[in-house]
Amino acid sequence: MLIMKAIRVKLWQDLVNFKKPTSFQLKETYPLPPYSTVIGMVHTLCGFTSYHEMKISIQGKYFSKVNDLTTRYEFKNGMNYDATRHQIKVGDYGVSRGVSTAELLVDLELLLHIIPEDPSLVPIIEKAFREPIEFPSLGRREDIATIQEVDVVDVEKRQPSKSTEISDGYNAYVPISLTENNSIHFKSHESSVGRDKLLGTRYLLTEKYERVNHGTEKAPKFFRKWRKKDVIYSSRIFVSKKDVFFFDEDNYLVFIEEEE
Known about the structure:
Mean pLDDT: 90
Low-confidence stretches: 191-196
Number of strands: 14
Largest sheet: 11 strands, mixed
Number of helices: 3
Order of helices and strands: EEHEEEEHEEEHEEEEE
């Protein structure tokens, strides 16, 4: 059985917002960071200047949610400054400043497994978390993360010796593909096994993007084309002793997809 090396990171955040792209006046947050947010943090801390493919497992919990006022900046491409409508002048252009509301997670705990496609990057990523080059943040720039534990662990797909549940109180993003082959199950409220139901909230989360030119060579117009991952967010997750699933050496569940 193939054994993969992973960097397991436990971190904590006081207040944090992982903004849903479709929310504006109230900046709603995802319950855990999307894959692209975690991958972006890894690349920033490592100082990578090109994209490195990696698998990410995300699980955690938060205490509560609160709303807080934030400053919102708005501008229209090419609109010149008008003192009667703009509060800020940037060159010849005008920017409006107003107030919006952000939804914040309180006391967020995260358990991340980071598995780079290139195994030689494992010590580089480990060092980046042990000795960060700047204050690590996850979410908004001001959402500082306190790194509590960093370990390099083995991850392999195996049968557990007994039925294994996700850590108490934790939720996780479970890729839909893991539910389609019945390698993972969800507890129902009526009984201990709810194998025929996906109990949780379904999200389509961003993972990585490529820049695509929809213009011409002389007048380029670049847009981001996102690769997204279809997941279930749930806390009622277990793997029976008859199933085969990904575990690390300390018996934590690792929510990654198999190689195609």
